[in-house]
């Protein structure tokens, strides 16, 4: 059975001795005696079950295992110190932690965050993208924008996603509906909706070129922007690229997606969270209004 480290002081002494090149130098940095440093490292070696230093009359040298462990411990301690410095400098009232999926963070949130910070100067945004539903509450995230299957969780504001067909001007300067099958068709998941659209349009679809399948909506949007084909895209994620001209929408009606977005926020709502939730609602409502025009 592996022995657990019960005292991290030994790791600190070990990392310092490894970095400084000896017990005496480490003792000077740690304000200890060389004997105390040596004892801590001996105890660590006993716990680990292997020798970290080869000891000689006038000096010590790292063993191969000691060298490998020193590199890892140094990195871990540096990360720990950075995190502590960061937390000490953080203003809880001004810091807003937001989590969302990788695709939504990249294609919707990131391009719009300046709009929010312009409205709320001094807000320190911390955005964590994860396709795992992270916890919301004290010590965790303040706001989670979650991708949910419709109709979503009762009692929370829900923003349905819509699907549009779009392409990049890198692919062609203009594409009419009857030209769809001349180009590769990009999709996420399955080709079912593409096949339904082709059938409804009455296009001769003996062998459509379903070129690439993507597992993430953000990757699908980026592939369309790069000109790899015509794509069936979530409107929310494609909206910034449509606005900038990197994507062109084909004149087909938008279709309801099986999924949408919901905001989960820590309660009771703090002012910083309320401001973000209100801003998010305004942005999503404006986006829907633009789609309906």
UniProtKB/TrEMBL annotation:
Pfam family, one: HTH_1
A GO term for molecular function: DNA binding
Domain HTH lysR-type per the UniProt entry, residue ranges: 6-63
Gene3D superfamilies referenced in this protein's UniProt entry, alphabetically: Periplasmic binding protein-like II, Winged helix-like DNA-binding domain superfamily/Winged helix DNA-binding domain
Name by which UniProt lists this protein: LysR family transcriptional regulator
Protein species of origin: Leeia aquatica
Transcription listed as a keyword: yes
Alphabetical UniProt keywords: DNA-binding, Transcription, Transcription regulation
Family: Belongs to the LysR transcriptional regulatory family.
Keyword set includes Transcription: yes
Residue ranges of the TM segments: none
């Amino acid at each position: 059975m592996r022995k657990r480290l019960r005292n991290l002081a030994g790791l600190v002494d070990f990392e310092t001795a490894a970095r400084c090149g000896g017990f005496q130098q480490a003792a000077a940095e740690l304000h200890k005696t060389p004997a105390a440093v040596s004892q801590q490292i001996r105890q660590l070696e006993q716990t680990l079950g292997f020798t970290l230093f080869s000891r000689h009359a006038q000096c010590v040298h790292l063993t191969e295992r000691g060298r490998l462990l020193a590199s890892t411990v140094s990195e871990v301690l540096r990360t720990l110190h950075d995190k502590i410095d960061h937390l000490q400098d953080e203003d809880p009232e001004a810091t807003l932690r937001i989590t969302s999926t990788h695709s939504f963070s990249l294609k919707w949130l990131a391009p719009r965050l300046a709009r929010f910070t312009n409205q709320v100067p001094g807000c320190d945004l911390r955005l964590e993208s994860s396709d795992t539903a992270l916890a919301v509450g004290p010590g965790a995230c303040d706001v989670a924008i979650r991708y949910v299957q419709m109709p979503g969780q009762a009692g929370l504001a829900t923003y349905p996603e819509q699907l549009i067909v779009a392409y990049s001007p890198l692919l062609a300067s203009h594409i009419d509906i009857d030209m769809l099958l001349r180009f590769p068709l990009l999709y996420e998941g399955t080709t079912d909706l593409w096949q339904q659209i082709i059938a409804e349009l009455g296009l001769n679809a003996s062998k459509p070129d379903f070129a690439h399948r993507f597992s993430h909506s953000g990757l699908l949007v980026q592939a369309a922007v790069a000109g790899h084909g015509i794509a069936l895209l979530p409107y929310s994620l494609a909206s910034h690229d449509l606005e900038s001209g990197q994507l062109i929408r084909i004149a087909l009606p938008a279709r309801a997606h099986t999924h949408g977005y919901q905001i989960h926020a820590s309660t009771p709502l703090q002012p910083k969270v309320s401001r973000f939730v209100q801003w998010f609602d305004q942005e999503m409502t404006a986006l829907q209004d633009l789609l309906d025009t």
